[in-house]
Design brief:
By secondary structure, the chain is of the alpha/beta class. It is built from 4 helices and 5 strands. The two termini are about 15 Å apart.
Length: about 100
Amino acid sequence: MREVTDATFADEVLAAEQPVVVDFWAPWCGPCKAIEPALEQLPLDVVKLDIDANPSTAARYGVLSLPTVILFAGGEPRETVHGARPKKHFEKVFASYLR
């Protein structure tokens, strides 16, 4: 899973031709680390954004709790999952975007 930053977010997420799942996380967040394996198994482009190092993007999308996972398609947020959830939950929420 690659990292994006405030500086690269527009190019790597908003301008992407395919849907992109963004994992808003922080190094101190245990539940964020717990969901990473589930996110890596999704057949989607998944990136992560450290909210401590990149607060502007997190604020722009109203990320107030961690983990928060947002699926972007066509440059817009389409689906959001708050909290640590199992892989099946992510698959259900993102079902219409899965390849």
